[in-house]
Amino acid sequence: MPATAVSRNSAIAAQGALLVVLAALGFSAKAILVKLAYRHGVDAVTLLALRMAFSLPFFLALAWWDARRTPPGTAEKYDGLAAVGLGLLGYYLASLLDFLGLEYISAGLERLILFLYPTLVLLISAAWSKRRISRREAAAVVLSYLGIALVVAREPLLPERNWGTGAALVFGSALAYAVYLVGSNRLIGRFGATRFTAYGMTMACTACLAQFAATHPLEAAKASAPVYGLSLAMAVFCTVLPSLLLAQGIQRIGARRAALIGSLGPVATLVLAYLVLGESMGWEQLLGSALVLAGVMMVNLK
After folding, report:
1. pLDDT tens digits for 189-236?
2. What is the pLDDT of residue 300?
3. How far apart are CA 4 and CA 10, in angstroms?
4. 272-281 tens-digit pLDDT
5. If I label 192, which of 72, 117, 185, 291 is the partner at 20 to 30 A Cα–Cα?
6. Which whole-number Å values give the CA distances from 59 to 51, 125, 208, 289, in the listed order?
7. What's the per-residue H, E or C state across the chain?
8. Domain boundaries defined on the chain
9. pTM, whole model, 2 decimals?
10. Longest C-alpha distance within the chain, in Å?
11. Which of 21-25, 63-67, 126-130 is predicted with the least confidence, judged by mean pLDDT?
């Protein structure tokens, strides 16, 4: 391969890695904002509906803008239904299970369980494509999850709550998100990253609002000003921007590497929990952060 082509591919890979890192930072802030909102007495379904209600106008505008800017992609007959299904799975069901799980367990434990998804992505991808996991990827996973285990080593399990239920809910969220990442890898190439994200997220937002309308009276949407502010922050910084950045990153480096880079998420949550929620940060967390960073670097640096 000519040197210019190698250089161009390396630049694209670096851009993709940076986009996924930024997306992971945005998604990681969600657990902190959810915990802050729960202090004001709002329940999971209402908070999720408010988050998606603030997000929906952004995605509708994005879909309109992208339709005017770019010609239709190469999507086949049933690709639209697949995009809708993945949007519901990866951002509606995964978000709902995650929000429900956070009612039972702490933000640190939630991050540990949720960020099992890179391993799930690798396993699903390997089974789907019949491709063996490389030694470099396997070593990166081991290092990353050793680091994640250390990060939450001193996390309290909140014995007054049914933390087993919370753990199961968050694991279901991780599995749903892993399936979304694997499926989106192909569809992003057909629709384009922006259009795929806009369509899938529009359906996810609609489903969240429909669930709220079916299970809650309209008056339940009347919340305090801090809840509205936190919901808006979640919409912009933990939903709209990260989902777009992630789709662009997957388009450049693929779902497998994107999932491994996402292991930075628990480290970001640790730092945010320390700064915002006042949670402790000991040597276990610092060492764990270093291991996670080492695992990510193994995948992206040669």
Report:
1. 777 777 888 888 888 899 999 989 998 898 888 888 999 999 999 999
2. 56
3. 10
4. 777 887 766 6
5. 117
6. 13, 28, 14, 34
7. CCHHHHHHHHHHHHHHHHHHHHHHHHHHHHHHHHHHHHCCCCCHHHHHHHHHHHHHHHHHHHHHHHHHHCCCCCCCCCHHHHHHHHHHHHHHHHHHHHHHHCCCCCHHHHHHHHCCHHHHHHHHHHHHHCCCCCHHHHHHHHHHHHHHHHHCCCCCCCCCCCHHHHHHHHHHHHHHHHHHHHHHHHHHHHHCHHHHHHHHHHHHHHHHHHHHHHHCCHHHHCCCHHHHHHHHHHHHHHHHHHHHHHHHHHHHHCHHHHHHHCCHHHHHHHHHHHHHHCCCCCHHHHHHHHHHHHHHHHHHCC
8. 13-300
9. 0.73
10. 64
11. 126-130
* 117, two tokens: 């998804």
Distances from the Cα of 48 to the Cα of 34, 205, 248, 296, angstroms: 9, 9, 24, 30
C-alpha dist (Å) from residue 142 to 22, 85, 119, 136: 23, 31, 9, 10
Structure tokens of 124? 């699903």
Q: Rounded to the nearest 5 degrees, what angle is found at the Cα of 210, between the Cα atoms of 209 and 214?
A: 120
Burial of 227 (0-12, 13-18, 19+ CB in 10 A): buried
